[in-house]
Amino acid sequence: MAKFELTLPENTRRFLHDAGELSRFAARFFAEGFSPRYEVLEFVRQCFVVGYKSLPLAGLTAFIMGLVLTMQLHPTMVYYGVEAMIPAMVGISIVREIGPILTALIFAGKIGSSIGAELGSMKVTEQIDAMEVSGTNPFKYLVVTRTLAATLMLPILVIIADAISLYGSYLGINIYENVSFYLFFKQIFDHLLFMDVVPAVIKTFFFGFAVGIIGCYKGYYSSKGTEGVGRSANSAVVVSSVMIFILDLLAVQITDLL
Amino acid sequence: MARNSDHKEMVITIEGLCKSFGANMVLDDFNLSLHRGESLVVLGKSGSGKSVLIKCIIGLIRPDRGIIRVLGQNVLTLSHDALDEIRVKVGFLFQSNALYDSMTVRENLEFPLRRHSFNLTQSAANDMVMEALHNVGLEHTVDMMPAELSGGMRKRIALARTLILKPEIILYDEPTTGLDPITALEIISLMKAIHEKYRTSSIIITHDMKCVSLTADRVAMLIDGRCYAEGTYDELKMAQDEKIKQFFQ
Ligand SMILES: Nc1ncnc2c1ncn2[C@@H]1O[C@H](COP(=O)(O)OP(=O)(O)OP(=O)(O)O)[C@@H](O)[C@H]1O
Ligand SMILES: [Mg+2]
Fold first, then answer.
1. N or C end: fewer C-beta atoms under 10 angstroms in chain B?
2. Is A36 on the interface with B (CB under 8 A)?
3. B30 and B222 in contact (C-beta within 8 Å)?
4. CB A123 within 8 Å of CB A231
5. pLDDT tens-digit readout, A223-257
6. Chain-chain contact of A135 with B115 (C-beta, under 8 angstroms)
7. What is the pLDDT of residues A8-40, one digit of tens each?
8. Is A15 part of a structural domain of the chain?
9. How many domains does chain A have?
């Protein structure tokens, strides 16, 4: 009997293989993450590290983004005589899209790469094996704590970044005209609906999870040698950035249905 | 290291061990046993599967087939907790030291103490750390980071971390590889001192003949995935077999 074989191009096969392995890895996260023993101390430490490491950069870019966006919108809005709408427009774009995406990408660059490199070098220098023989489940101690920390810290970072960004926009508008702080934010909150804010925050949990789990996966299965570590860090950033955009695309489809 | 022939209790026995990675057959029906108080050297060339072998013993790699008994228990059928109990009694010195980069020397040494959930007070833990560091002569490095240490010092700290739980058996994965001859000799004499002091049994994996001649009570040769020959250093040195002779040239 003739055997039926599906032949796929090598890179397609590798992609599918990788996707399958990554899903298995994520499933293991749920299986191991919610059974004792809980690594609470390491989790809290990771939350601090993850948040602290990315806050300055995320804050700075958010500030500049808010400022620049406002300054670039201003002439056009004045031309159409709707400069009063600037706060509402900037508010919605920042809260719904720019804040989450920009912060998540910065987060992927900063945290995804550092998790990938850290776990990768722990893998190749046998530190993960050493944990295993020291009465520690390295998956719980390293992967679960870091992924959870990334999942919980990114939404918080995004909210802070949104606020900083809106403040940047407030300064931007004051370059041209005098708008009071109260009026500016009243304008924003009059137009910002509950349905703008909630989905935008919810999707950032998924972004954070993607960055954490992909960074861990790439590090945990890093190939031998220092070159392997570099490759892990690099592909952690690339894959999680692409993943963020894919999730964002899904999120906009879902919120459109609501 | 005196050969102790009146003690014949087995602490490790390995029977019919097989392990392959894909098409790469690394271990093929490997048999070996370690007696209490003995220093057994496993000799094999690079890539012959020496690291795979001792990682199987401690349960880090799951073999495809075979039986591994450590202190009377088959490690392949043990529960996770029972395996952890065995791992307290079996120290492992990693080929690449495996010191945690993000922790100080003290935290590195405390890690196995704390994680194996003995309820230790801080001062008891401190005493154990200092005793382990004293054994390797590096008390002054206690607050340093691993990156600040030289290769030989790192090896000694790794040894101290292995010793801190007072294991009955120590598995050394290439303890002298990558060190200069003088530092290698220091590590070897440290290993001998530990053997004398704590009466440990050990398996030493190496391809360094100097290390073999100085530490081995018995030598096993890992060639083509199996235990190709076994005997004392002098016996194997006299052997006529081509594959064995290669090592002694
Ligand atoms: N996790 C793994 N996946 C696939 N192959 C592996 C794995 N670990 C080891 N191998 C293969 O098993 C063989 C033996 O490796 P091992 O590390 O045991 O060699 P070794 O005898 O310790 O060599 P060295 O002296 O260089 O440390 C090698 O061919 C290696 O490629
Ligand atoms: Mg090896």
1. C
2. no
3. yes
4. no
5. 877 788 999 999 999 999 999 999 999 999 998 88
6. yes
7. 788 888 889 989 999 999 999 999 988 888 999
8. no
9. 1
| Residue A114 · residue A94 · CB < 8 Å | no
A134 → closest Cβ in B95, B101, B116: B116
- Counted across chains A and B, CB pairs separated by less than 8 A come out at 47
Q: Does A9 touch chain B (CB under 8 A)?
A: no
CB-based contact A133 B60, cutoff 8 Å? yes
Q: Which protein residue has the closest C-alpha to ligand 1 atom 18? A: B49
Residue A231: domain span: 39-257
A10 inside domain = no
Q: Is the dihedral of CA B211, B217, B221, B226 positive or negative?
A: negative
Residue A176 located in a structural domain: yes
**Contact present, B220 and B40 (Cβ < 8 Å):** yes
Ligand nearest to the CA of B24: 1
Complex-level ipTM: 0.91
First to last CA, chain B: 24
Inform me whether the C-beta atom of residue A121 falls under 8 Å from chain B C-beta atoms. yes
Place of tokens 């880090």: B60
Write down the pTM of the prediction. Answer: 0.90
